[in-house]
Every structure is written in C-alpha cells, then in structure tokens.
Design brief:
25 helices, 5-stranded antiparallel β-sheet, 33% helix, alpha+beta
C-alpha cells in the first residue's frame, strides 16, 4: 500500500513538474465579487446627483418668474370684460359686485367639514401639496382615464384662481405647487380656507362666495343658518355649477349632494345615520324663490362663464380676463324680443320656448333664447333643459347613418306597413295608417315612424350611435339610460337640448364637418397670456351624406307632403325637421291631459349660413300641454321670424352638390328596387333622386312598357268592341210571312248587316217549333201545304242578338175555296218591302205598317194613336167594300193603340166588319169603325180576298 502510495505521489509530482511555467499550481483563486456592483451603484449615484442638480436647476428656472403672493390679489377681485363677435364691443363687465365676504369664525363647522370632505380631506395634514393625494390621483387616472380625479389641494386652488393662468403645462403646475407652499408658510390653514370659501364660484348670475350662495339658493340671512343637507348641496356645486344646480337640475343635484354626504360620513365628519337622514330631504324643499330678473345678454353670458370655467379653470369674476365671444348683438336683441312677446304671440305666460342660433361654418353661437320670464340663475331652456327630441332625431339616428354606412339614395324604397320593434312591441305612425312603398325622402317628409325604425335597423344600433356621437350627442352616457330601438323615433328617457341639436344639424349644412357649438373664441389673461378656445373642426360624416340628408330635409319644407311648409321663406333655401313628443299615460291621467295633447314641439332648421334649433312646450306637465294650432305651430313660427331677420342684408348662399353625388331620374318606388324610367313611364311617376356616385340604378323599368302594350291592346279591343257594338246597334233584322196559293212565303233580311252577319230562323206551328234556316245573309223559305186555319209564327235572330218576328194565319177550307175562285184586286201602288201585291206586311223595326187600305200607321216615336179606318176596296169588281183592314202597330212605349176593321161586303155577301185588336204590350184600344155605303145589288161582285192578321213583336 505504501509503495503504491509513494508511486502515486511520485506520479503526481512528476505531472506537476511537467506543467508549463507561469501557470499557477493547484486550484485557481476566485475573483472577488462586488466590484461591478460598486461600479453600478456609483454610476447611479452620479447620475442621480447630476439629475438632482439639473432638476433643482430646472425647478428654480420654472419658478423664477412665478408671481409673488400678493395679499391684495388674494382678497380682492378684478373684473373681466366680455366682447361681442366684432372683438371691439364690450357687452358687459363682470366682477365681484355680488360677493359678500364672511370671516372664518362666522362659517359654521358643518359647512367647513362639507367642503374639506369633498375637496381636500387631508387639508390640515399637508403643507400645500398633498403628494399622497397626487399618487392616488395618478393611479385613478391610469385606471379610469386622464381627468378621472384631480390632485389639487384647497391651497393649490386658491393659488390657481388668484395668480396663474389655466394653461395645463408642467411649468404652471410647478409654479402652482411652489406658490401653494409659499402660501402655507405665510398664512394659516384657517385663513386659506376663508379665502377659498369667499372666492369660489357657485352659480350663474355672478354668485360668488359661500355667504352669497346661501342667500341665493336658500334665502338665509347668514351662512350660519345652513342645515347639513344644504351645506352638502353647496359643497357639491363648485365642481359643475350648472350641471348640479338644484334649481334647474334637481336630479343631478340630488346625486351630487348625496355623494358629499357619503364622503362626510366616510371621513368621520358625520355619522352614517345623519347622512341617511339628510338624504331624505328633497333637494328643492328649502330652495328660495328665484326673483332676480336677468339683465341684457345675461342668458348668453351665463354660457360664456360656464365655458370659461370649464375650459380654463379660471374665475371670470375675479381674474381680470378679456373674454372674446361669438355673440351677434343684432341676433341676440331680436331673439330677446321674441322671448318677450314682441314678435310672436305666445298663448299664455307659462308657455315656454328655448332656441339657439349657430353659425354653420364655425359653430359659433350667435344668440340664445333661454326662455320666457326668466329669473337670474333660473332654468335655461336652450342649454340646460333636456327633452325628448321626437322625430327631429330621425336624420341623426336613422337616415343619416343609412346613407353614411349603406350608401342609401334619397329615393331608397322602404315599405311603410304594419310593423313592430325587435322585441315584438308594435310601432305605429302618427296617423295610424300605412303608405306602402315610399322613398326615404318621402318617409322623412311625412315623418313616418315605421320606415325610420327600418332604416335604424338596417344600419345597426351601434353604427347609428357612432354617427350620433360624432355630432355631439352622448345619448345614454350622461344619465345611464339604456340605448334602445325606441331612440330611432325620439323615445329618449331624458332627452337633448336645443344647444346640442343646433350643433348636430349645423354639420349637415357644413358639408359634414362638425364644430362643437361654443360662445368663447379666446381668453386673454392679465399677464398677456392668450388661450384659443375655438373647438377644432372634425369630420362627422361624408360630404355625400351631408348633402343628401340636407336635400331630404328640404323636402320637409318644400314638398306638398312636408310637415314644415309653414317655414318657407322667399329667397332662402331652408332645410329642417319637425318633431313632437307625447306625455306618458301616468301624466295624462294625473293631469287630465287629452290624447291629442303634446308635451314637446321642435323645429330644427338651417340655411347655408345658420342653424336654429327651437323647442316649445311647458316646464312641467302640471303647467299645461300643447293642443291648439297656435301652440303646435309656435316652433316653426319662431324659426321663420328669426331666420328671416338674421339673414337680412347677408349673402343667402346655397347648398352645393359635391362631386361624390349624382342626380338621376327614377321611377317612384313600387318595390324594393329603384329603376330608371322607360319611355312609357308616366311623367307623374318619374322623380329625381340623389345617389352616391357609382350606386345609381342602371336597369330600365319594364313595368310601364308591359302596361303600355297591354293598354294599347285594351285600347284596340275597346275600339273594336265599340265599333262592333255600334255595328250591332245599327243592324235591324226584319222578317215577313204571307200566305198565297196554298203556301206560306217567309223572307228575312237586315238593314246595315255586315258581311259576316248570320241569321237563324225558327218557326212555331201546331206541330211544334223547328229551325228553318241558319246562315249568313238574307234569305227566304216557302212552307208548302200548311194546315188550314192554323197560325204560323216566324222569328229571325242575328248573331248580334237582334231579333224580329212575324206570323200568318192560314185560311180554313171554305176560305181557301173562295180564295181560289177570286181574282186579285188591283194594286193601288202600295206594296210591302218584299213587293207582295196582295198582302199587307209588318215591319217591326221601323214601326210602320203598309197595307191595302188607305190608313196611315202611327210613327214608332208617338206616345198614343187612335186609328180609324174608313177605306174602300180597290178591287176590280163593281162591288164595294164597306170595311177595310187596319192594323195598329205595337210600340215599346205601350201607349200605342190602333184599330183593325176587317170585313168584306158585296153583292154576294156582306159580312159586315170584324174588328181584330192588334197585338199590344199593354196599350189601349180606342179605334172606331166608319160605316161604308153598300154595293149596288144589280152588279155582281167578285168576292174580296180575305185579309190576314199581321202582328209585330219586339
């Protein structure tokens, strides 16, 4: 073992001896850790020191020109000047004249606690800047978006409102923090809180300071008299004085007051029970009656103050600002006259109106009509009052989005029919009827609800909402209401303001460019700083949408079916939309409102230069409802007067058709597709519509081509029928029958018969009825060996439905023998139509009967006839015939009467006379027989040929 060990040791040594020189033997030494770390730390420290030096240097550079903390500025205020739109005319100077200063000790603890809990809960713990709050604000802004929460302390707010411009820059924020620290060093917390509560802005009408606010809202003589719920309400106002005003916006005010009460309880200033009890008080329960009347331009200037505070955080009543506005004094003066009953006649003192006039190109508000009989700080019906828009929303939520997204034309066919919302709820038009297929233009012009809903559904609710948002409408975002299909016809829970609607409609007139309506263009601060407050233009829709919607709204004004024909004004191109809304069933029942009573009536209209939104109605349901024609037409009446006045002496302008739009003639819709008219389309059914370029129809309608062909065919058929009827009417068939030589001769013909006229002849005899002949053209037939003493009747009928009849009686055997021995009497020159020499004939159609006697038969048109026969026999014998043969005709008037005297007298026999009445349809016989001189006995007489009995039938 030892040898092996030694061998191993020797081998190990030998191996070590063979290693190159310079190499360390054994295990290498580890390098010391920490060298790199020390270097990194050193670098960071160095950078930190450099950064600190740079930061300190930057900080001092930023604060080097910061204003000094001036006692006079802190406690005194400087008025601001408000300029009209010419930039020169000062319309008002607003300042601190309505401020009542109150000392810290006079302010009750409940008021102090309410403001501290709301604005700066760590007020007594920080030194002007609350870094803990800043951190929390940063986190809130990161989670909920920039502006979700502010980090300024009460001290910073005093500094900002007293010394600095509202520019949101890093430099201004640094100066604000520096001056807040300086203010805390110079003044106590109590003094700073006193400054804050005396400088803060509470409401329009120049209401500044807690003492003035207590008097304005609650009518108390001193701030000491405020209760917990009142203090909480006032503490919630400075964040948004108009939005949370308990006089004009009680719902929002209640929410804000309750938030303040919750914060006070959360931070230990009151108990939760006290907070809950204060919440039960109606926010308007203790409000003082607002009696202070407004002065000239106050309504407009209230909006100016609102905008300045919102956009700059500056105090217009104390900051010494120069405020440049869009106010058109001429327009505002006229609007004031309208509101004061000097232009239109309002139905009563409670009837209200609100209107806003906007310049289309800039969005600048020219004038505001805030209401009638207003008091300072009262409800502004133009900017604060939100009501259901009715059908004025249809261009914004229905047809505008459809043109924008689906490229509908102005003639888009929509079927107005029985319909319902997606949830099954029925929807009806105002008139409770349906128009069938109509164009989008006509549907809007008639204000039909069902096509509007269909347009909304075709585009989709999301796209419609996006379109409206681009026009400044928040819809459900402001009060949490559920956005639904009912919005398509104006069924909002809360609604919109005339200010919002004027801004939205002005974009249609401005080729689709939206400018938020505004009253302030710029603000100049005492240090010379200027801030441009003019909103930036943005495209809300394509130019084709703006133009086509404008043209559709022109039809609302100009077409016979339009609902706004009353606003037509010579020389002005006007487009617009009417709208109405109804009361709820509960309101109708509670206030006894008839079904026809309306809650709101709107008219939003525009010319190429101006847009005006007008709302009319009553402040509350208990004040009244709109029913009379004067009330329902008031919104349009106001619009017409104002637009006429503000347009005087100015270029009228016109709506320009963009290159993206083409105009085409089309047939009025009868189905879902529009087509070009054909040459056969009636002009009354051709209309011109606008299309997005590339979407106009190319197919030509065949509807009226087919109809024209059918019409021509029907016309020809009618012409043929008429001719045939005329021809048929002229065809007068006739038939004669006579007995002679032991046979009956029958002949038929027709006057004016056409070549294709056919005749059917039937005979009625003792043996029955039978058809003698049938065929075209006139003809005749001989009946041989007729039965003696029998009567044969014959009827001819044409293919046109006309007919005639005749009959003949065959003599019996004895008469026949006499006839065979007789000699024909001489012809007196009178024959029938068939030239029969010895028989009298009957013609039914011409109403005359020609016989062998000398009597004249009555005309068919005569109403009565009393015939008599005093004839003589024209025979060749010496005997005389004291009798004759006369047959009266039958007339459809049933007033003809005639006599027949049938008899022979002579040397051989004298039968006297046998009177045979004619066949008659109810007429009366009144004939008389005249006796004749008897024949000479010595002269033999040839027996006369017995006369037959002719008859006529119709």
């Amino acid at each position: 073992m030892s040898d092996n060990y030694r061998s191993r040791e020797e081998r190990r040594r030998a191996m070590n001896d063979n290693k190159p020189e310079g190499k360390s033997q054994g295990k290498p030494k580890k390098k010391k850790k920490g060298g790199l770390f020390r270097k990194i730390v050193a670098a960071v420290l160095l950078i930190g020191i450099i950064g600190l030096i740079a930061g300190v240097g930057t900080f001092f550079a930023m604060i080097s020109d910061a204003p000094k903390v001036d006692d006079s500025v802190l406690k005194n205020s400087f008025s601001s000047k408000v300029y009209a739109n010419d930039g020169k005319t000062v319309v008002k100077e607003i300042g601190a004249q309505k401020r009542t200063y109150v000392q810290y000790d006079e302010i009750p603890q409940v008021v102090k606690n309410a403001f501290i809990a709301t604005e700066d809960v760590r007020f007594y713990k920080h030194h002007g800047v609350d870094f803990y709050r800043i951190g929390g604000a940063l986190m809130a802004n990161f989670k909920n978006g920039f502006g979700a929460e502010g980090g300024s302390t009460i001290t910073q707010q005093v500094v900002k409102n007293s010394f600095l411009s509202p520019k949101k820059t890093v430099k201004r924020k640094v100066q604000e923090m520096w001056l807040a620290y300086q203010l805390e060093r110079k003044y106590s917390k109590q003094q700073i809180l006193e400054m804050y509560l005396n400088k803060i802005y509470f409401a329009s009408g120049e209401v500044y300071g807690i003492e003035r606010a207590a008097e304005k809202f609650y009518g108390v003589k001193s701030v000491k008299d405020l209760t917990l719920d009142e203090a909480a309400m006032l503490a919630g106002l400075p964040k948004a004085p108009t939005t949370y005003n308990p006089v004009t916006n009680p719902e929002n005010a209640t929410k804000r007051r309750n938030t303040v009460l919750n914060l006070m309880a959360k931070n230990g200033f009151i108990t939760q029970a006290e907070a809950d009890k204060a919440k039960q008080v109606d926010v308007q329960a203790h409000l003082a009656k607002q009696t202070e009347s407004t002065s000239k331009y106050d309504v407009f200037i209230d909006q100016v103050i609102e905008e300045v505070k919102k956009k700059t955080d500056a105090d217009p009543f104390s900051a010494g600002l120069e405020i440049y506005t869009t106010l058109d004094t001429n327009a505002q003066d006229y609007v004031d006259d309208v509101m004061n009953n000097k232009v239109v006649n309002f139905p009563n003192d409670k009837f209200q109106a609100g209107l806003v006039v906007v310049d289309n190109e800039t969005g600048g508000i020219q004038a505001i009509g805030g209401g009638r009989n207003r008091v300072s700080g009262g409800l502004n019906f133009a900017t604060n009052m939100r009501r259901q828009p009715g059908s004025t929303i249809k261009p914004i939520l229905d047809y505008g989005p459809a043109i924008e997204n689906l490229k509908w034309s102005t003639g888009q066919p929509i079927k107005d029919e029985e319909y319902h919302y997606s949830n099954g709820t029925p929807i009806r038009n105002f008139g409770r009827n349906y128009k069938g297929w109509v164009s989008a233009r006509e549907a809007l012009g008639r204000s039909l609800n069902i096509p509007a809903l269909k347009a909304f559904q075709a585009t989709g609710a999301d796209k419609a909402k996006e379109f409206a948002t681009g026009l400044g409408l928040k819809l459900d975002e402001e009060d949490g209401e559920a956005y639904s299909e009912s919005y398509s016809i104006g069924g909002f829970r809360t609604g919109v303001t005339p200010l919002q609607m004027a801004g939205a409609y002005s974009a249609f007139a401005n080729e689709g460019m939206y400018n938020a309506p505004h009253t302030v263009t710029k603000v100049k601060f005492p240090d010379g700083t200027e801030i441009d407050l003019t909103p930036k233009s943005k495209r809300a829709m394509q130019d084709y949408t703006a133009f086509m919607m404008t043209d559709m709204m022109k039809s609302v004004v100009n077409e016979s079916y339009g609902t706004a024909r009353a606003v037509r004004t010579p020389g002005l191109e006007i487009a617009g939309k009417t709208g109405t809304s109804n009361f709820s069933a509960a309101e109708k029942q509670r206030y006894n409102i008839p079904d026809a009573g309306e809650k709101d009536v709107w008219f939003n209209g525009f010319t190429p230069n101006y847009t005006i939104s007008v709302w009319t109605g009553y402040e509350t349901a208990k004040d009244g409802y709109i029913l009379s024609a004067n009330e329902t037409g008031m919104a349009k009446n106001i619009f017409k007067h104002v637009i006429t006045h503000i347009s005087e002496g100015k270029p009228k302008g016109s709506f320009k058709q963009p290159d993206s739009v083409v105009e085409r003639s089309v047939e009025k819709p009868t189905g879902k597709d529009l087509k070009r008219p054909s040459g056969s389309t009636p002009s009354s059914l051709i209309t011109k519509e606008y299309f997005v370029r590339g979407t106009a129809p190319t197919k030509v309608s065949q509807t009226f081509v087919k109809k024209e062909k059918e019409k021509e065919e029907k016309k020809e058929d009618k012409k043929d029928d008429k001719k045939e009827k005329k021809d048929n009417k002229d065809v007068k068939p006739k038939i004669t029958a006579s007995y002679s030589g032991g046979a009956i001769s029958v002949n038929w013909s027709a006057a004016n018969a056409a070549s294709d006229t056919t005749f059917t002849v039937t005979m009625s005899s003792p043996n029955g009825s039978e058809q003698l002949a049938s065929g075209a053209g006139a003809g005749g037939k001989t009946i041989s060996n007729p039965a003696p003493g029998a009567t044969y009747s014959f009827t001819v009928t044409t293919n046109t439905g006309e007919s005639a009849s005749s009959s003949v009686k065959v003599p019996d055997s004895s008469d026949q023998a006499t006839e065979d021995d007789s000699t024909k009497p001489e012809d007196d020159g009178t024959t029938d139509d068939n030239q029969n020499e010895d028989n009298s004939n009957t013609d039914q159609n011409n109403g005359s009967d020609q016989g062998d006697d000398s009597s004249t038969q009555p005309d068919d048109n005569q109403n009565s006839n009393n015939g008599s026969n005093n004839g003589s026999n024209n025979g060749s014998n010496n005997g005389s015939n004291n009798g004759g043969n006369n047959s009266g005709n039958t007339d459809n008037n049933n007033n003809d009467s005639g006599n027949a005297n049938d008899g022979n007298s002579g040397n051989n026999s004298n039968n006297g006379g046998t009177t045979t009445p004619p066949a008659d349809n109810g007429g009366s016989d009144s004939g008389s027989q005249t006796p004749q001189t008897p024949a000479t006995p010595s002269t033999p007489a040839t027996p006369a040929t017995p006369q037959q009995e002719p008859t006529t039938e119709n």
